[in-house]
Amino acid sequence: MTESKLASLTLTGLFAFGLLLFSSLASAQQAAPSLPLLFDARERLARPDLSSLVRLRFLTSVDFPPFNFTDQNGKLSGFNVDLAREICSELEISDKCQIQAIPFVDLKDALAASQGDAVIAGLAVTPELRRQFVFSRPYLMLPARFVRNLAAPIDGKTAAALAGRPVGVVRGTVHEAMLAAFFPALKAEPFDTKDALLAALKERKVDAGFADALQLSFWVSSPAAEKCCALFDGPYLSEHFLGEGMTIMLRQKDSVLTSAIDHALATLSRNGRLQEIYLRYFPYGLY
């Protein structure tokens, strides 16, 4: 398995969707569902002493919106960028923190060469990377979701209501495999591309689809969807099919820093600041 981003997103398309969502946040009709708590509330992670830390250099990229990108003013922005700043604030080392963007393909080598201390850029955790690096606890899971055409007469609010109806999915993806494993009774109709799936859903050639919640969340709220569709049931999570989630990658020798970042992530999760960042970039929610 090779390193890859956790979601296949285009810079132009998803960034445009992001701008649309940011501008419409104030007019959202309902509060987005809460971000699932990924840390046990009873677990207490010790806060290591970082007094000897000279600096903490986060490495990211600019091609993974809304997680890390440059905004219209050329400023480095995104969920991961804001989270890195919050981690530094929680650890009381903001004056020692730096966030640098480099090409995605160079992230692994740059960290190995100590040109940075932590990578926060949506790298998928793989066995190969685990042999070289360590990873923080996950701070965000990217679920799968159903999406339905609102004109389809679906009687019910769960996946069981889709029995006997065509459910689109992109051929050869983890979501196709996940749909078959989780919902073997549903009638899957494969498409060659995500765009083909969404076009068929919009034209009601299929009544529903099953795909990455991140992309679906942006699409249903975009002008391209023309208010045809809505997220339906779920979310569905699976480490086997969807991976371990969003994490921060560090060098194996930096165990103290890894523990400190885990402590900060747990605190941000419990005190609601991680939820605030989540709603800032996903006002309509993934869950």
Automatic annotation (TrEMBL):
Lineage: Bacteria, Pseudomonadati, Pseudomonadota, Alphaproteobacteria, Hyphomicrobiales
Chief subcellular location: periplasm
Keyword set, alphabetical order: Signal
Signal peptide (UniProt feature, chain positions): 1-28
Subcellular location: Periplasm
Keyword Lyase: no
Superkingdom of source: Bacteria
PANTHER family membership: L-CYSTINE-BINDING PROTEIN TCYJ (PTHR35936:SF35), MEMBRANE-BOUND LYTIC MUREIN TRANSGLYCOSYLASE F (PTHR35936)
Coiled-coil annotated spans: none
Alphabetical list of InterPro entries matching this protein: Solute-binding_3/MltF_N
Cellular component terms per the entry's GO annotation: periplasmic space
Protein name: Polar amino acid transport system substrate-binding protein
Keyword Cytoplasm attached: no
Domain Solute-binding protein family 3/N-terminal: 55-285
